[in-house]
Amino acid sequence: MNLASLGRTYTEKLGAAIIESIDGLGSVSRFGSKFFYWFLKPPFRINILMQQLYFIGNKSLFIICLAGGFTGMVMAYQVYFGFKLISVDSLVGPVVSITLARELGPVLTGLIVAGRAGAAMAAQIGTMKVTEQVDALEVMGIDSFQYLAVPRIIAGTICLPMLSTIFCLVGNVGSWLVGTKALMIDEAVYLNKLGEFMFMEDMIQGIIKAFVFGFIVAVIGTYFGFTVTKGAEGVGRGTNLAVVWGMISVLILDYFLTSFLVHIL
Amino acid sequence: MIDHIEDAIQINNLTKTFGPHTILNELDFNIAKGKITTILGFSGAGKSTLLKHILGLLHPTSGQIVVLGKDLATLTPMQLREFRRNFGMLFQYAALFDSRTAHGNVSFPLHEFTNLDEKQIDERVSELLLSVGINEEAFHRLPSELSGGMRKRVGLARALALSPQIMLYDEPTTGLDPITTKMVNDLIVETHEKNRGMTSIIISHDIKATLEISDFIAFLDRGSIVEYLPVSEFKKSTNPIVQEFLNL
Asked: Complex ipTM, two decimals?
């Protein structure tokens, strides 16, 4: 194969991948936009919503607390050793707290929920799809999107800001413990600086991000469930794609949301 | 082709294409009301696609489908969903909701579409499950705890919950042993006889069972109906494809 044809092959592959990505993005957007049509239409599936709130929210609490606590503790160490060099180690509390509130809380919570609940959504709906349970709903005259996707998307959108807030709270406790008990920062100074530099806007920014991430992760999880084909192998692939694209979306959206929110908050 | 006094379903010049592939090619036939009609054909002949068109889950590329006097193309998505309550369907593998018990599966459409109270629903579910041969000890078992034949029975009870006018069976005996196959076939006939006026449509490639339980047989081959006759005449068909199928 000469260089020109090799170049053409790679260009064709790249072009095909770009077209496929744009096509996929369009499909997910179209799928997500259906939510706005359906979520205010009765019947409201309160029972399914409660089940999903329990699954996404309550069942994620342990891993969120664990991740939040250790993230706060590690952050406190890292910030302390950097800040000590320039004698501002008293600012460990606010720096960790602001980082958790604005970035690490919503992003890490988004990644954890994408891995846990996003995958579960894709697997549950995908399995229902390949075993014709989704068709059974449609034949009964029940819109499968309204029945399966809407409660999950609402639950994801509600739960993620809550989980992110808990992540930040536990992270701050971890940071406070390490800062005041292991690194011997004066407790009064730690709390005083926290009150001085930490503002409500920091929390609001994180909550807005978490809200968007919750929506996106749930839309992607349910989308890959509904698009499953080809049996068990398809369910596996759908679940994998839901996790990968859920995480990628959280990371990319974080940049755009940050660049937007820093200007308005 | 057959002239009926009354048709449950009229299929007029139905064509369905997916990209360059023509799956259904100008199908033109009617399905008799109150009878058992089997749509027979080899795998990939377009049987399931036809079924999805009858249910309004797929839209024709061209042509018309009239079900119980309604042209499906004129119905809005919401009307179509409501209209589907006239159908009951037994899926190939029953398609029971795996998080619900047998009782939960049968009560599901009753909770969704009726105003019956819990006691009335419970009575109706018990009646339906007992009528298809599920005894009380299995009422609260999950689908994973039921045998293939029992799952089919529960699927049938669920399909009958809203007393449908048209009952669809998608490959009802695929993957079942001969005894369970006979049981399912008997159940189809019994259900049809119990529900007077109900139209039953079976999608199948099981020639033996089809000849035993059907009133009419339509043979679908590569997207076209090549033969559509009462069962007694179908056996005498001289169509070479039908002959090949009958002699398998």
From this structure: 0.85
